[in-house]
Specification:
The chain is mostly beta strands. It is built from no helices and 11 strands. β4 and β5 form a beta hairpin.
Length: 119
């Protein structure tokens, strides 16, 4: 069994910063890649950023230059540093871990953390 837990959301004014954390735990052999998705009210979930075990990163155009994803492989933890936040960044942020565990290769999602940016 694998658990994915996010933390770090909250309320911030436009132009401010937040740092999200996500840790995967359980019967894990290795974490292949980790990602942050977000879902704004009334919209579909979308990829914000992802990072592969080799360190390669990928960002949505809307967050490039403002968000930075990083990971600590020893802790199976991923971080999302969000700067210059905008009201349109508001939404629930979900962490995804693609994991090789005793159950095989599979995606595991966290429960989500709310980010609210006020104008």
């Amino acid at each position: 069994q694998v658990q994915v837990v996010e933390s770090g959301g909250g309320l911030v004014q436009a132009g401010g910063s937040l740092r999200l954390s996500c840790a995967a735990s359980g019967s894990i052999f290795s974490v292949k890649h980790m990602a942050w998705y977000r879902q704004a009210p009334g919209k579909q979930r979308e990829l914000a950023a992802r990072i592969f075990s080799e360190g390669y990163t990928d960002y949505a155009d809307s967050v490039k230059g403002r968000f930075t994803i990083s990971r600590d492989n020893a802790k199976n933890t991923v971080y999302l540093q969000m700067n210059s936040l905008r009201p349109e960044d508001t939404g629930v942020y979900f962490c995804l871990a693609y994991v090789w565990s005793s159950g095989g290769l599979s995606d595991y999602w966290g429960q989500g953390t709310q980010v609210t940016v006020s104008s």
